[in-house]
Amino acid sequence: MDPIIILIFAGIFLFLILGVPIGFAIGLSIMAAMFFDSSLGGTFLIQKLIGSLDLFPLLAVPFFIMAGEIMQKGSMATRLLEVSRALVGHVTGGMAQVSVLTSLFYGALSGSSPATVAAVGGIMIPSMVKEKYGKPFATAVCTAAGCLGVLIPPSVPLIIYGVATGVSVGDLFIAGIIPGLVIALCLMIVSYVISKRKGYSGKDKRSSFKELMQAVYHAKFALLVPIIVLGGIYGGITTPTEAAVIATVYALIIEGFIHRELTFTKLYDVLKGTVLTSASIFIVVATATALGDILTVYNVPDQMVNLLTGLTENPIILLLLINVFLLIIGTFMDALASILILGPLLLPVVTHIGMDPVHFGIMLIVNLSLGFLTPPVGVNLFVGSGIAKISLERLSIAVVPFLLISIVALMFITFIPEISLFLLK
Asked: TM segments (predicted)?
């Protein structure tokens, strides 16, 4: 491998150890490479920082983030919780089942894993503890279920992958639905088994059909969001960016004028949260895109293809190797940076063995989403431990069963393409 590439990755690793945010770590490492390699030009990084963000599909990111912020500050999460309670509250471990199902619904609103943990966990963790559920278990359920936020469309990571690789964001949104349901089902099964063993029962009786319909009616505006977004995109009416704008305006109208939950103070918090989150994402996008261009200049994608296919031509073994590699990367690297750097690098490898780019995108996102559950970069763990006021160590142990079942689900998604591609046929 070229010394400049080694220098860049050594620099990134060093800066991450020192606690430098991933976007700045990549940018500083690129600046070091520019110092030693004059062929890159003195304005390379500036040009890439500007050019990489001058893309229409990327506008969807801040709008989906703002829509999620509005719904988080409003009452939609609470209304979705009531629907979940009516559907599965009577099952063994009912509160845990409600947490997973509400996270599934809320993931279709926020597109963010930490936001899903914050919104659902902020309500469910105290409620579960009050109902005598163990605090580590209650927090682990909400923390693990938060990963559904990056898979159930609309999803910011899916948008980033689509922009980085040229794959249709609309197709990725549709492809993420069934894998998201599979993972949700796996988390509910684990919740059931643990609850059965620990004696966590559900509510006394199943909700009547009338009670269910009342809950659905109260949550009707929240339940319409994924229909509006996906229906517009898949129906060819809107692009993902236009759908994001519609979702934001819709959320403003519903929470501001119908539910009347959006005060001026909350609106300020929404705008502040949107700006801060979008800025942190775009710094990573810009610097990681610049790094991707350097890797292309130095022919690293072709070298990666030759290296991995030189180890084995067996597709099963190759995909297992890629999954193990991504699981390791996810423990210490930010998911968006990993998508931007590794997506374009590994895509030629998997297409070489006949894997569909959309299928690979879902596999990649599912894999890297597990990084939200693994220290030291497990963002969901930090959010969950902050809400529940328990140590990161206790939560990391409690989340292990959910992490293991998610890896099993990942294997199914990897080796059964129809799980991802069925709705696209």
From this structure: 6-36, 48-67, 104-125, 137-160, 172-194, 215-237, 243-262, 274-298, 304-328, 335-354, 360-383, 395-416
Tell me the residue range of the domain where 405 lies. 58-424
Cis-peptide, bond into residue 154, ω within 30° of zero: yes
- Residues 302, 304, 310, 312, CA torsion sign: negative
121 in a domain, yes or no?
yes
* Residue 38, token pair as written in the block: 């004059």
Spatial neighbors of 212 by CB under 8 A, at least 6 apart, are 83, 86, 87
Instruction: Give the chain's domain count.
Output: 1
DSSP state of 112: -
**Separation CA 275–CA 281 (nearest Å):** 10
Instruction: Please count the CA atoms within 13 angstroms of the CA of 17 that sit on its side-chain side.
Output: 6
pTM summary value: 0.85
Q: Which two tokens stand for residue 75?
A: 């009452």
Helix residue ranges per DSSP H, 21-149? 22-36, 44-51, 60-73, 76-88, 94-110, 113-116, 122-130, 135-145
Is 366 part of a structural domain of the chain? yes
Q: What distance in Å separates the CA atoms of residue 48 and residue 219, rounded to the nearest whole number?
A: 44
Whether 377 contacts 332, CB under 8 Å: yes
CB count, 10 Å around CB of 113? 29
R_g over Cα of the chain: 21
DSSP states of 159-182: HHHHHHHT--HHHHHHHTHHHHHH
Ordered per-residue pLDDT tens for the chain, 425 residues: 678 888 888 998 898 888 888 889 989 999 988 888 777 777 888 888 888 888 888 888 899 888 888 887 888 878 888 898 888 888 888 899 999 998 888 877 776 788 888 888 888 898 888 888 999 999 999 999 988 888 888 888 999 999 989 999 989 999 999 999 999 999 999 999 999 998 888 776 788 889 899 999 999 998 888 888 888 888 888 888 999 899 999 999 999 899 888 888 999 999 998 998 888 888 888 888 888 888 888 888 778 778 887 888 789 999 999 999 899 888 878 888 889 888 988 999 899 889 999 999 999 999 998 988 987 778 888 889 988 989 988 999 999 999 999 999 999 999 999 999 999 87
Asked, for residue 32, whether it belongs to a domain, the answer is: no
